[in-house]
Write a structure and sequence with these properties.
Shape of chain B: globular
Keywords (chain B): ATP-binding, Nucleotide-binding, Transport
CATH topology of chain B: Rossmann fold
Pfam families (chain B): ABC_tran
Family (chain B): Belongs to the ABC transporter superfamily.
Distance between the termini of chain A: 31 Å
Helix content of chain B: 25-40%
InterPro entries (chain B): AAA+_ATPase, ABC_transporter-like_ATP-bd, ABC_transporter-like_CS, ABC_transporter_ATP-bind, P-loop_NTPase
Radius of gyration of chain A: 24 Å
Number of strands of chain B: 9
Protein name (chain B): ABC transporter ATP-binding protein
Largest interface: A-B, 21 and 26 residues
CATH class of the largest domain in chain A: Mainly Alpha
Helix content of chain A: over 70%
Number of helices of chain A: 12
Structural class of chain A: mainly alpha
Largest sheet of chain B: 6 strands, mixed
Strand content of chain B: 15-25%
CATH topology of the largest domain in chain A: MetI-like fold
Oligomer: heterodimer
Largest sheet of chain A: none
Number of helices of chain B: 7
CATH architecture of chain B: 3-Layer(aba) Sandwich
Strand order of the largest sheet of chain B: 5-6-7-3-8-9
Radius of gyration of chain B: 19 Å
Chain lengths: ~280, ~280
């Protein structure tokens, strides 16, 4: 430990190395302590595993049931990411159309709002009636949920372009296409990234909720089915293992979208820059 | 010194309409601008801007000087009157071809693009390739002393340097007319003086015609060969002063403390004071 601290303080900027170390160490230690307290609590009180399994048991179950859980995880991941990608494309394209023409905005925006404010669980049965494949129906639900934050952020972003820059483009006779490609889309990038971060989390949530609503079952089902199944069978360790996988997926999506946002904005946008005073 | 300063029409009388002289780069005829909220921003402004002039539009805020500049640039249409370009080819969009450079109050750079790409923008919008434009962009950056910062991002530059990028961008198309809308208002006095010198140097080197909006008497007196003093409510030209041409001042370190400059500032100040108390014309 001392060696680590020494090397950190001999750095050119001593504060930086230490703060980076703390950034990793504090949450890691905190997580370790939480798991330890949980383990100790379960063991000391002899809590039965069908009430609360110890973390060690959850870990064992995760390994033991990997053959069942892994395919389910893949299904959930596939639904989540295809829904997110469709929502990114759909949200961006519709946002561009909406800001290009006042008429299109007046005509289409209400539908986007209605789709957003209606609870997804309530639409799911209807979608299941119309779409023959359960997986496709779940994906449509996840898409609908992830779509709106991306759309509304992009609309906001495309409308927030500096007016003087718009004037400048007008002055040099830029075409609408040039204005969109060279000015509006890059200017909206920070907003797009916000939409991506929100939409990424929501598409996972929606993929799980929609699977509950669809009541899908059998071999081709996702993690939500495995979760329900474990509950019916009182296989609480497996329920926890499925839950751990879902949380890990959520964290991974958050980390991935944050990294993408940082990489694309780090050279110029305030949100990706450290403040120096 | 005084006799060189010919005051125009301080009582606000209408100037007699004159035909656009062939040496005019742009001429405004009875240009009136009323905004949609009813404000009369500009009332019957008539002015010929001749080739090689350095014209300052000087006046208090709300006198329509920026509005006039924007109308010249084609960014807003006059409600009445017309803007004529006697010496230019007119493009399909009704604007003179590649003849205008515009510098805004703020640097107005794209923060996601490095300096080079920002200065390259006007050429890119005209359909020029990056390789083809490289020499011209670098030359423009060199004239403002930023050759070594081509790869930097705007946020890495100081306020004065950002403004220089903005000037380089305006110059990259080799415009005949450079329009500047209070470009240095937000800069500190020292940077501002330096940039004023740069603008004077570019004006004489590149044989530019400049229209410069400012509310600083000292800046206007330092830079201009002609000052149009404007009054507010409604915005109009109250006095049109011809001054001695400012060539070479940027090389004369003593000019800013000279008696000549003091006299100039005094007479411009007096014109501005009388402009503020001038009665509004019938155009109101």
């Amino acid at each position: 430990m001392e060696a680590v601290l020494d090397s950190a303080s001999s750095d050119e900027t001593p504060g930086l190395g230490r703060s980076r170390l703390l950034k990793v160490a504090v949450p890691a230690i905190m997580l370790g302590l939480t798991l330890l307290a949980w383990e100790v609590y379960v063991r000391v009180n002899a809590v039965p595993p069908y009430i609360l399994p110890a973390p060690s048991l959850v870990a064992q179950t995760l390994v033991k049931d990997w053959g069942t859980l892994y395919p389910a995880l893949l299904v959930t991941l596939r639904i989540t990411f295809s829904a997110l990608i469709l929502a990114l494309i759909g949200g961006t394209v519709l946002a561009v159309l909406l800001v290009q023409s006042k008429w299109v905005e007046l005509a289409l925006y209400p539908y986007a709002v209605i789709l957003q404010v209606t609870p997804i669980v309530a639409i799911a049965p209807l979608i299941l009636v119309y779409v023959s494949s359960t997986q496709a129906a779940i994906m449509i639900c996840a898409f609908l949920v992830a779509f709106f934050p991306i759309l509304s952020n992009m609309v906001q972003g495309l409308k927030s372009v500096d007016h003087n820059l718009l004037n400048l483009y007008d002055l040099y006779g830029a075409s609408r296409w040039q204005q969109l490609r060279l000015l509006k889309l890059p200017a909206a990038l920070p907003y797009f990234m916000t939409g991506l971060k929100i939409g990424g989390g929501l598409s996972l949530i929606a993929a799980v909720v929609a699977e509950f609503a669809a009541g899908s079952a059998g071999a081709g089902s996702g993690l939500a089915f495995r979760l329900l199944e474990a509950q019916y069978r009182l296989n609480i360790p497996r329920l926890f293992a499925a839950l751990v996988l879902l949380s890990a997926t959520g964290v991974a999506i958050f980390a991935l979208t944050s990294v993408v946002a940082w990489l694309s904005l780090r050279r110029w946008h305030e949100s990706a820059l450290a403040r120096e005073n | 010194m005084k006799q060189a300063v010919s005051s125009g029409n301080p009582d606000g009388a209408e100037p007699a309409p004159v035909a656009a002289s062939p040496r005019s780069v742009v001429s405004l005829r009875d240009v009136t601008k009323r905004f949609s909220n009813g404000t009369l921003a500009l009332s019957r402004m008539t002015m010929d801007i001749r080739k090689g002039e350095f014209v300052s539009l000087l006046g208090p805020s709300g006198c329509g000087k920026s509005t006039a500049l924007r109308i010249i640039a084609g960014l807003g249409r006059p409600s009445q009157g017309m803007v004529d370009w006697p010496a230019s080819r007119i493009g399909r969009d009704g604007r003179p071809d590649a003849d205008i450079g515009f510098v805004f109050q703020e640097p107005t750079l794209m923060p996601w693009k490095p300096v080079f790409d920002n200065a390259f923008l006007p050429l890119r919008l005209k359909g020029m390739g990056k390789g083809e434009a490289r020499d011209r962009v670098m030359a423009a950056l060199e004239t403002v002393g930023l050759k070594d910062f081509a790869k930097a991002y705007p946020r890495e530059l100081s306020g004065g340097m950002r403004m220089r990028v903005s000037i380089a961008r305006a110059l990259v198309t080799d415009p005949k007319l450079l329009l500047m809308d209070e470009p240095f208002g937000a800069l500190d006095e020292i940077t501002r003086q330096k940039l004023n010198d740069d603008v004077l140097r570019l004006w004489s080197e590149k044989d530019l015609t400049v229209v410069f909006v400012t509310h600083s008497v000292f800046e206007a007196a330092y830079l201009s060969s002609r000052i149009a003093v404007m009054g507010a409510r409604p915005g109009r030209v109250v006095a049109d002063m011809m001054l001695p041409r400012p060539e070479g001042r940027e090389k004369d370190e003593g000019f800013r403390v000279s008696e000549t400059y003091g006299d100039l500032c005094r007479s411009v100040s007096q014109a501005l004071v009388s402009a503020m108390y001038a009665p509004a014309g019938e155009g109101a």
